[in-house]
Write a structure and sequence with these properties.
The protein is 0% helix and 37% strand. The protein is an all-beta fold and 107 residues long.
């Protein structure tokens, strides 16, 4: 597990799914960032999180054609995190914790 420093960990915390008191799960919405790929093609990255604060890259593709990739248990993959803010204001610890459907913490 990697680490990232932030001075306000609670202000940039995200959850990828909201779980209510009835154990219903609601996946957080995605947002997109425009990008120009290495071959000059215009496209977008899809992120999940809080726009203009923190996001986890979950997909990419041509503009208006980007596809979201699902997280699959026991399948390794590289996930990129994006943080917004002044360089000097982003410091402190950053920790990623997963929770399964039964509420068990997975590290």
């Amino acid at each position: 597990m990697g680490s990232f420093k932030t001075s306000r960990p609670s202000s940039i915390a995200i959850q990828l799914a909201y779980i209510d008191e009835n154990e219903n799960r609601e996946v957080s919405p995605t947002f997109s960032l425009p990008v120009t790929f290495g071959d000059g093609t215009k496209g977008e990255y899809l992120l999940i999180g809080e726009e203009r604060k923190v996001g986890l890259l979950v997909g990419s593709g041509k503009t208006d054609e980007a596809v979201e990739e699902k997280f699959i248990a026991n399948k390794a993959n590289k996930h990129m995190w994006y943080f917004w803010g002044e360089k000097d204001s982003i410091s402190g610890d950053f920790k990623v914790v997963g929770i399964d459907k039964e509420g068990k913490v997975l590290l």
